[in-house]
Design a protein that fits this description.
Oligomer: single chain
Strand content: 5-15%
Radius of gyration: 28 Å
CATH topology of the largest domain: Na+/H+ antiporter like fold
Mean pLDDT: 81
Number of domains: 2
Low-confidence stretches: 401-408, 669-686
Number of helices: 24
Largest sheet: 11 strands, mixed
């Protein structure tokens, strides 16, 4: 018979028990409508020393717990949409300061006068009330109001509140470091942290861009990013601060370098949510004593925490509503988003719990640790209810802002592949061009009737493209198609799949007499009514930092104008790139207006441009991580200019070592994409 002495000490069975909890706990919690973070902590209580004592809180929980804590803070910063926040940065800064300051001062008063804690402990506890975590953000995304100004203000306020909270935590924690020497030591500590922060902000993005351009392997990229996270956390601990501040800062500076819809982000979220973060939460639960829940002192501290935290956030939302003249629904939405506590609260209470005072007691004792769990549970429930009700009210009232001018159309991006070298670049470009949440991908390989042997290579390309998209959690359909010639096959495939865009690789010249675009591209543009996008990748598209768009004068009158503006807005948003648009005043104003109407978080500059026969001035502004996009009008249209005939030689002369995209707008559509041309096709040529 099997005999397991308790607690279990064998590493194999310890890991099995933990994985079983991670597997089955969410299934049960989903039915009980309990937030997953509370469920994992509860599971830790049940299997820990204060529960059934199945497991001991050994060194594995300490190691994985430390990793999980840094992981939580890193992902919290990485997942924030900084592009949206910039549009409401003044209000977001004001809300962040108000929603941090009111709970902070209210908590200091209650912690010191009512509960009687010493100043450092009172500051740490008040910081728990002042911070918040956006655990209900998926609710607003599901209801389609993530672009609403109240959401952007709440997200921006989160950055301010969490940053100030971690700063306070680092200062208090630094005072109890062995290297601390009073106020002079604190001043020296702040100087070290400031210098290290500047180093991280300046150097880490540069190092990341260089690495991402050179190495495209997803495993190497994941290991590299995690190395930066722990390097930032480790250096912060060396100078005397808490490592979570370094992890959070690394997340902020890498926010622009890691696209939210890319495979790297998918891997980071998957590994963290599947292993490190649950392991950390279970370890937190093991510290909590079940019998403490019946202690009057614990309940008293918990009630004070809930009152200060919830009341302070409500007052902050109410005050911002009055200052910025917002609606009651917006106030409730901001309150709901900013009232939940999770990551920062756990970090604070654990750091305070580990600090030992000279008399041998803990800075934050067992009663605070247990009361903090009540705060997390109550705040998550309040936040979930408030956010859901406010978000539904806004969605039904019509206050929600649309996310793009093409909400009535559906993207179906299809790749037709032939050259194996361009499979990955074009697949990545298609993912960045598709409208998030509505776009689907289809890959097609055109097999010529006189070349049946190429079918095997075509299928291999399709499988590799599907694998590339699957790494970003994007589903792609694949299909082989026979045809007498590539143009005919692509043309019929575009009709069958109701394409709006045809994305092809730039022609590779074999002879000096070859045309820049190649005969295939010229014939395809003439044969199909869809928008054609010609793309050459020099660096991975998600490492592009600025997009230079050259739009023709009077281009706003082109029927395909709205569509290519939409595509560029989506791509700039996906890769978090700045945009420079070059054209005449009327066209620039039209582009600007469409991006504003579509609520694209595009950081753009609009440059009046007249040197149409020489792109040298634009080339001088370009760097290796920039992309040049030229809008080339269809032949025979009133907005086709003579300089378009010289675009190939301009691109070959000035941008031979740069990433290039040429867009020929569709010949159909009047402001919006027609119903019979929904979708897209990304086609790569040999």
């Amino acid at each position: 018979m099997f005999h397991f002495p308790l607690p279990i000490t064998d590493p194999t069975w310890i890991f099995f028990v933990v994985l079983s909890v991670i597997l089955f706990a969410p299934m049960l919690l989903e039915r009980l409508r309990i937030p997953s973070i509370i469920g994992m902590i509860t599971a830790g209580i049940v299997i820990g020393p204060h529960g059934f004592h199945l497991l001991e809180r050994d060194s594995s929980f300490e190691i994985f717990g430390k990793v999980g804590l840094l992981y939580i803070m890193f992902l919290a910063a990485l997942e924030m949409n900084l592009q949206d926040v910039k549009k409401q940065r003044v209000k977001a800064l004001a809300y962040g300061l108000i929603s941090f300051g009111i709970p902070m001062f209210l908590g200091l008063a209650m912690n010191g006068w009512v509960l009687g804690y010493i100043l450092p402990a009172a500051v740490l506890m008040a910081a728990m009330y002042a911070s918040h975590t956006l655990i209900t953000y998926p609710t607003v995304m599901r209801l389609g109001i993530s672009k609403h100004r109240a959401v952007n203000i709440a997200v921006g306020g989160t950055i301010v509140a969490v940053t100030l909270t971690l700063f306070l935590l680092a200062v208090v924690g630094g005072l109890y470091k062995e290297s601390s020497h009073g106020w002079f030591g604190l001043l020296l500590l702040l100087m070290k942290v400031a210098g290290l922060s500047v180093l991280i902000v300046v150097m880490f993005p540069l190092i990341a861009r260089m690495f991402f351009r050179r190495y495209g392997d997803s495993v190497l990229q994941y290991i590299f990013v995690m190395s930066l996270v722990f390097l930032g956390g480790g250096m912060m601990e060396i100078v005397g601060m808490e490592g979570i501040l370094g992890a959070f800062l690394v997340g902020l500076v890498l926010n622009r370098e890691i696209p939210p819809g890319g495979p790297l982000m998918n891997h980071l979220e998957f590994v963290g949510n599947a292993l490190f973060i649950p392991y950390f939460l279970i370890g937190v639960g093991m510290l909590i004593s079940v019998t403490a829940f019946a202690d009057v002192s614990v309940l008293t501290v918990a009630l004070v925490m809930i009152f200060c935290g919830t009341g302070g956030k409500w007052l902050g939302a109410w005050l911002c509503q009055k200052i910025f003249r917002m609606s009651a629904s917006e106030r409730r939405l901001m309150f709901g988003l900013s009232s939940a506590r999770a990551a920062a609260t756990l970090a604070i209470v654990l750091v305070g719990y580990e600090i030992i005072l000279p008399d041998g007691t803990r800075l934050l004792g067992d009663e605070v640790l247990n009361a903090a769990m009540f705060l997390i549970l109550a705040s998550c429930i309040i936040s979930s209810v408030a956010t859901d009700r406010a978000a539904r009210s806004i969605a039904l009232s019509g206050e929600a802002e649309v996310s793009s001018p093409h909400d009535d159309s559906r993207d179906n991006i299809m790749l037709a592949l032939r050259n194996p070298k361009n499979v990955v670049p074009l697949a990545q470009a298609a993912m960045m061009l598709r409208t998030p949440g509505r776009g689907s991908l289809t890959a097609v390989s055109v097999i010529l009737d006189d070349d049946p042997d190429s079918r095997a290579q075509g299928q291999k390309n399709l499988d590799f493209a599907a694998k590339t998209c699957a790494a970003a959690n994007v589903r792609m359909l694949t299909h082989c198609r026979w045809s007498v010639n590539p143009v005919t096959g692509i043309s019929y495939a575009a009709r069958e799949h109701e394409a709006t865009d045809i994305l092809i690789g730039l022609h590779q010249k074999e002879k000096i007499t070859d045309m820049f675009f190649g005969r295939f591209t010229e014939d395809l543009v003439t044969a199909v009514p869809q928008q054609v996008i010609v793309y050459r990748s020099v660096v991975p598209i998600y490492t592009i930092r600025r997009i230079h768009i050259v739009a023709p004068p009077r281009g706003q009158h082109d029927p395909g104008f709205r569509h290519w503006v939409h595509r560029m807005g989506v791509m700039a948003q996906q890769i978090c790139a700045r945009v420079s648009v070059y054209s005449r005043y009327g066209t620039l104003e039209a582009v600007k207006r469409l991006w504003q109407e579509g609520k694209y978080p595009v950081e753009a500059e609009y440059v009046e441009y007249n040197a149409w026969h020489d792109f040298a001035s634009i080339a001088n502004r370009m760097r290796s991580d920039h992309l040049i996009v030229v809008i080339l009008a269809q032949k025979g249209t009133p907005w086709r200019h003579n300089y378009h005939n010289h675009v190939p030689e301009q691109l070959e002369r000035h941008f031979s070592a740069r990433s290039v995209m040429v867009i020929v707008p569709a010949r159909v559509g009047t402001g919006t994409v027609s119903a019979e041309l929904r979708g897209g096709i990304a086609i790569e040529q040999k």
